[in-house]
Specification:
128 residues, alpha/beta, three-stranded mixed beta sheet, 6 strands, globular
Length: 128
């Protein structure tokens, strides 16, 4: 099974210049735990902002989520894989490095997102 078989294609993105409040609003509206941070140019790196990034920042900034931009707290460049990579390799990469989600790119074009939950869900379907 390849990444393209299980990845989420409908990815919600956020500007790196959005405030954490705006990012949290998007997460809440779409019931997500992470957002892909947009590129500024086609050669720029994609980023990823997660609930964990936001929570750490809220604690450090004493709850003022209007003063901090997404760019200040996101992982950039986000770790990514190709769509044709075998899911077993992706699972190994994630578990060895403590990563819960990866971007799926082709020539630096965003195709989707793959999460540990996607992988576990595909394994559970094979058991049935």
């Amino acid at each position: 099974m390849q990444v393209k078989d299980i990845m989420v294609r409908d990815v919600v993105t956020v500007s790196p210049f959005a405030t954490l409040r705006e990012a949290m609003s998007l997460m809440k509206r779409h019931d997500l735990k992470s957002l892909v941070v947009e590129q500024q140019t086609p050669q720029d790196a994609w980023g990823l902002v997660t609930y964990t990034n936001v929570l750490k920042t809220i604690v450090a900034e004493n709850g003022d989520i209007d003063l901090v931009n997404v760019y200040d707290v996101c992982a950039r460049p986000a770790i990514s894989v190709g769509e044709s990579l075998d899911v077993r390799h992706v699972a190994g990469l994630m578990t060895q490095n403590g990563i819960k989600r990866l971007l799926v790119l082709r020539d630096n074009e965003l195709l989707g997102l793959v999460t540990m939950n996607d992988i576990v869900g595909s394994v559970m379907e094979m058991i049935d």
